[in-house]
Amino acid sequence: MLIDSGVIFGIDIAKGSSRAKELPRYAVAVLKEGEITQHKMVRLPHILKMVREEHPEYIAVDNIFELAPAKKELVRFLEKLPEGVRLVQVTGGLHKKSLLHLARENGLSFNQFDPNEEAETCARLASMGIGSEVSLFEDITKIKVSRARSLGRGGWSQNRYRRKVHGAVRERAREVEAILKKASKERGYSYDSRISKGFGGYVRAEFTVFAKRDQVPVGSGSTADAQVRVSSVVRDKIQYTSLKKLKRRPTIVGIDPGTTVGIAILSFEGELQLLKSIRGISHDEVVKLIAEYGKPAVVATDVTPTPGAVEKIRRSFNAVINTPSAEISSEEKIALGRLYGYSNDHERDSLAAALYAYRSYKNMFSRVEKKAPPHLDMDQIKLYVIQGASIGEAIEKVSGVPAPEKKPVEPPQVTDEDVEERKRKVAEKLKLKDSQISNLKDYVRELKKDLKAKDKRISKLELKLEKMREANHLEIRRDKEIEIRDHKISALKKDLRRSKKSLKRAHNDIRKLKQIRKMEIKGKGVPVKILPTFTREAILETKDRLGIKKGDIVFLEDASGGSTVTASMVVEMGVRAVITFSNVTYAAEDVFFRANMPLLKNVRIQRVDDLAVVDPDILQKALDEWEKQAEIKRQEEKEKKLKHLVDEYRSERRRGLA
User: Per the database entry, which stretches of residues form a coiled coil (predicted)?
Assistant: First the structure.
């Protein structure tokens, strides 16, 4: 059975090992239009470059772990292959055959010590449809739409920036969903979505598409604010699918019906052809999918009686139904499916049903293979036997040659001596059987005695175990209580440290306030309370710490950034004057002027740590100077106001005369 495959790569390791530190070298045979081109001592990166240039249908090997040391590295290799390029293990899947044996079966010969000839043999076997496709990805694709940049700690425009980024994620997610809606209608697959909403849009959107990656028309990419990541879901275990799909071979199908339908298809050799679960699939679509993998000879379910949906599928193919005699336990299902691997309960149940059916026919398949001539179609003979024919009848149907009739054999003449001899032999056999029965009874008595002794020992050990459990339980409780107490002690120690720090700060503040008070009493200077910055937080903190009150002098260390709000807060405290060496905003200066609060600039002060004093004479002189300037400014404002009133009056007069 030749496959028109265009180009096929056969690969065999020539030097080194995939598990070695140094990259191994390979022999590559390129089969194109029946001609072989050999490439010797090629490294894997160069092979991938050749694959991207030639785009072969198959990459054929006799052992997939020659390409990668483990499953994780093999996944990376398959992710690098272009769409449509499939990896084939020509020696089969779980039940492998030797390459030499396969070559002889299919009329090929090669030198097994020559990697180039082995690579060519792999390519030619794959072209004949020999081998199994290696699948490491589920028929599920994950799409994640998320932010392309971090939001950071933020500032004044943080909310606007967050809204912009989340809005971009929402718009990109809607674009992806629109593409998926259209593609799902055209190609007949379904998808689920999960949205995480944020301020002004989406934080992220995740789509689970129940289709292969090459069937999903969405690619990875990113913009300034949003990014899309598309990836296939990796299987728990490697799946092998036979290449012989062009011939509709009989199959064993396991079905788990419901809203999500689980389908498992096995060949008569026990190789897994398909394992899939599909949500919301119709009966016709299930039948069409099963038919792609062959003609079902047996349709199996894991429950009794047969569900109506499974019976309907069975009638569609006129197959034999197979149900278990008793319900299959979850433990048995897990044990049955462990070798193949599965993704969910639906796949597990359908796989268990198919494997249970295969196990019930396995011995019959072995008898057929022993009795039937090797040149006949074994699958067809097995199919007839499943349908109720005997092995001989099935062979006759396939070969077209009737089985030879057996001639009746005349019974031999029996004499009295023969009868006596037979009686004697029977008596000897009976005597021997009696002796065996007596020995077995003695053995049973010994076993019962041993069993009783073991039961007694087990009882003692169980009692000892119970005491050990109780002691262990008490120890665990004690350790748990100690852990809780240690946690409480640690928390109390933290609280104590915080209290000590707070008390120390309070003592320092009291000491500083006493120093200020002493200066006031002695008349050596007028205390000045320092505001480090002209902000609301700094004003409140200084007020709580130093106690700003009515009549105090305040020094603004950094007056930049002041506003009408912060200036009003200082005015409301009723301070006597404000001293600063830096420029004050016009808005803050206007508030001070309107409140008749002196704003003194460049007044010399003496500073000690975060305390300061000003000479009373210098202060009074600065206040007098400010008062003069303020009076001049007030007169100017009055003149401006009067002039404005006169101008308005004249304007109204002109309008009245006109």
Answer: 437-516, 623-655
